Amino acid sequence: MYRTCYMIRYVPGLEEGKAMFLYFVKAETSTPCGLPARTVLTSYYKSPHFKCRARDPFNDFTSPDQAILCYDSNQSMYCQLLAGLIHRNKVLRLGAVFASALLRAISFLEHNWPNLCHDIRMGNLNATINDPGCRSAMSIMLSSPDPNLADEIEEICSCSSWKGIICHLWPNAKYIEAVVTGSMSQYIPSLKYYSDEKLPLVCTMYASSECYFGVNLKPLCDPSEVSFTMLPNMGFFEFIPLGDNRTFVMDLNEDEDEDVPQSQLVDLAHVEVGRYYELVVTTFSGLYRYRIGDVLQVTGFHNRTPQFRFICRRNVLLSIDNDKTNEEDLHKSINVAKKLLDPYNALLVEYTSYADTSSVPGHYVIYWEIIHSTSVVDKAISIDAKVLQECCIAMEEELDYIYRRCRTNDKSIGPLEIRVVKLGTFDSLMDLFITQGASINQYKTPRCIKSKAALKLLNNNVSACYFSPRDPAWIA
């Protein structure tokens, strides 16, 4: 409702066309007592609220419900893209929940557009789509061949460059809607490339599984300037002060699970502009003073309602899609994997990580410096590739449920990669940070690299790369 009101104000006429939103459900599980457990978005897509959206012309989607509710993500993606291409001239806005999902769709389209064009040209759905709901819904859309439309799409997709492909395929689109704040900001350059920087990147709301928090009252602003106005009717919001620009980083490193005295909590009416806070919420569904883990900065007020900029998640190092890998989880997975080096007298002396989103899907990159544990003269060591590949899969098996689901079921994260670097690389990394102002007395190897200069140093010293040989175990 909030999103509808404010987008119509800034972009009139949206009810006259369709929205190509790519939505996907996740597989459900059951609790020990038999209650169904599923993500909040899956629950919403299966609810009457979503199914009855056709009454609202603003929510006229290209994707049929059957395609959205298909558990096979590849079949769902294929049918949703096919529906979007069939209605390409009616699409006024497009997007996904997260920017990563939209880029994944573009990558999928790049590999499958010939088949999609063939379906449109012949008026028949590809035989590999065997989900009954998808076949039923798409057979209605493909009621007759449309060779002219197929030719248009083929001409666009067969170009040597896909710069601006979104605007070419959906020429009437007015904006792209997706979460592009926080860890999703890493995908902004790619979205700008595929839209040729002609479409605004709109982030309309701030929400989580626990609660709906706020809306962006200036949806057409640059992603770097997005602030969310909190909605006090959605829950009771309190905040843990994290300081100002000088001190909030230090506070961020404190134990997230430690108890915070009630006297330290600040309510919504008493936050201060420019200061950083961790969000605490009490909800109508029963959460009491629940620490969301989000770090926010107050940017101003709308009337008397505070506005916040999302800064980051506490203690999250790596994130590609829905995954949130913190330092502790990464360290545990490293400890399990490095034991596989013991029989070869190899010792892992240092490591760091990086979320590589230069390709779709993105994947975790782990930099390892390994030495010979028993040789004093020559510490360089060569290890069989299969051993390092097993280290990759050992790490993935140890990471949490959400990561393994994204890797195995959703295919939204690529195989984990270990890049072995030359001896002395991490000493050089330390020297680099010291020249940039770090204290030699307080220096600690960063467990996730953000600096372009640091990444360049690491990559220039890579001696070998290894990938997970298979998907990690995951049980729906």
Automatic annotation (TrEMBL):
All residue ranges annotated as the GH3 middle domain in the record? 228-313
InterPro entries listed in its UniProt record: GH3, GH3_C, GH3_M
Q: What keywords would UniProt list here?
A: Ligase
From the record, give the transmembrane residue ranges.
none
Taking every annotated instance into account, which residue ranges of this chain make up the domain GH3 C-terminal?
328-452
Molecular function terms from GO: acid-amino acid ligase activity
Q: List cellular component terms (GO).
A: cytoplasm
Q: Which family does it belong to?
A: Belongs to the IAA-amido conjugating enzyme family.
State the PANTHER family in the record: GH3 DOMAIN-CONTAINING PROTEIN, INDOLE-3-ACETIC ACID-AMIDO SYNTHETASE GH3.9-RELATED
Q: What is this protein called?
A: Indole-3-acetic acid-amido synthetase GH3.9
- The scientific name of the source species is Olea europaea subsp. europaea
The lineage, from the top, is: Eukaryota, Viridiplantae, Streptophyta, Embryophyta, Tracheophyta
